[in-house]
# Entry
Amino acid sequence: MSEQQTYEPGTHPDLPPPPNMVGIIGWIRENLLGSTTNIVLTVLSVYLLWVIVPPTLNWLFFNAVFEGASRDECRAVMAEEGVKGACWAFIGQRFELFVYGFYPETERWRVNLSFILMLAALVPVLWDKTPSRNKMMIGSAIAPFVIGWLLIGGFGLEPVPTDKFGGFMLTLVIGVTGIVGSLPLGILLALGRQSHLPAVRIVCVAFIEFIRGVPLITLLFVASTMLNYFLPPGTTFDLLLRVLIMVTLFSAAYIAEVVRGGLQAIPKGQQEAADSMGLKYWQSMRLIILPQALKISIPGIVNTFIGLYKDTTLVIIIGLLDPLGVGRASLADTKWQGLSTEVYVFVALFFFVSCISMARYSLYLENKLHTGHKR
Amino acid sequence: MAATSQEPVTERQPLWYRVVYDKETRSVALQVLTISLLFAFFFFIIRNAVVNLEAIGKGYSFKFLWEPSNYDINQTLIEYDSRSPHWRATIVGILNTLLVAVTGVIIATIVGFIMGVLRLSHNWLINRIVYVYIEYVRNVPVLLHILLVHGVIVNTLPRPKNAISIDDTIFLTNRGFYTPKPLFEPAMWAVFIAFLAAIGFTWWFRRYARKVQDATGKIYPVFWICTAAILLGPLLVFFIAGSPMTWEMAELKGFNFKGGLVLRPEYLALTLALALYTAAFIAEIVRAGIQAISHGQTEAAFALGIKPNRTMQLVIIPQALRVIVPPLSSQYLNLTKNSSLAIAIGYMDIVATIGGISLNQTGREMECMTIVLLLYLSFSLSISAFMNWYNKRIKLVER
# Structure
């Protein structure tokens, strides 16, 4: 400390911040060990992770058996190593069943083709930079009918009865039909609920409140046990079609409430301005009110779609074979008994991936349509 | 204007012209059309139903409700056996549904609020863990959760013989959780009265404290005094009355436990799965509600010298509740309606009793489904009426 440099006041060069305030250490100090509560929380969560994550990963991957012809083979492999894990061989063996259900093997190309068609039809709907989008949209509008023809058959293709539908394919059929059908119906119901005509309003309110007041499963029961009584004697009605109608009506009621929220959020001045411009009811709805209302309702609408998609699992209760149903049915095979956890985890993964991609798309859409006002 | 190019609409024009061009006439015509279509539809389906039922000789009557049900229910809150009539089975189902709904709502609310607050924590790790958990739960169907939890309870817990015992009073087995059952002696009524009195006192004291605060600015520690009154008051009476309660312990007899209070795997799985599923949604609602309150509110409160705790209590939470309550109520409704999935694991709720076994035994689909639908409708309407009332109470009073 022989010579100490002196500075004129105000001329000292800026010192770097102390090393424990920046970089990784600084980040850890701030985000993990900031205060006593913070330290306690961090310790607790590290402990929680330590307890939960390694055994789960072991069960899922490291100790799991991926090849084998029966549950006993899986067990034998695991017993050799003295560990416990999942027996994914089961999923591998029954994979086709999980995807196609009992759809005839020779006709499965139709399912694949339908899937590709669906993806192709979705592109112009979901992605606004598609080249010549308007023309492509016409294709998207036709696609559902083509897919329906492909799956059911007739007109040159071998007909496949709908009780052969199953697996993920059935989930997609119910989910996509429900989504496509319930949006327009829901918008109409929401408009009806806001209508100035008392009769229309009362009918819409009664319908919406009834559907929202009962669980989907009871409606499916109604569809499977009672619907035949309400049809002219002698008519039969495909079970899958009944389910599709019920699911569509069910989620239309929920969509209607979401859209109503959006409609109510639009200032009254918008409608008055449209009226003073001499626009007719449908013109003002189509050009002024609905574009704004639907934009606000996007998160709610997508949430309803996700809910609908998840609710497709309920059809196993009335005997349709969705992935869960197929899985449970194949567990009845003595070779594979007792592997229910594997089935559930596999099906959960499928739903997780599809639902989370819908949620992410809704986030992207929200951000894209957000015109200003965001800090 | 469009009207100038058309002839003005008057009474003298033919009806079809007025329907097309006159707004008033058109709206009347539209409504008449709606109503008549509706009536035609109902007439059509009811006529079909009558014809179809007559063809198989069934009719529509609720007399079967008084016939013996001939099936057993493993979990009942009221006395019931297989000779009891169908209406009694229905009541057992209703009570079981309500039991799941009430316990589920309570657990879901508590867990949901805690997770919602943790989601806003500055601690990065806990924040992420809760986030991952919420995303997992929300994106997997509730039916899968129920089956998974049920599977875990039934497959991984030990048999009654080597039950996991907690202090030899609570036993966890794959046939359910066995806990001691409280047996009340007659003097217990004094304790219940003390409890009610404590609640009454709480209600009065809150109003009194508010009055004192308005008049003098003095603040009583209302929360602590009320908590003490509710907890300690009945406890004191309990000891004065000479502890009028004993516990009936669960004991291992043969292959299973006897006595005690048993929580069956079906009930546990359903309640836990529904509660945790709904809690994830509630957590997001709570987070959104708190985030919706602008930061300026906190800053203003601090600028007025209000302490952080009081800021939360007096400024943030009352405002956040207004955002939280409407979606919260629909989550409660969802939980109640989702409890109908009980049928997948064999818990005897409304759908499984009157809408399941009774329906299959008597073959009265119409009557049974009518009862089920009406029951759920009345649940939903009463929950939403209550929540609307509560919502109105806490709503911002605007002038």
Remarks:
- The mean pLDDT of chain B is 83.
- Chain B touches chain A through 57 residues (CB under 8 Å).
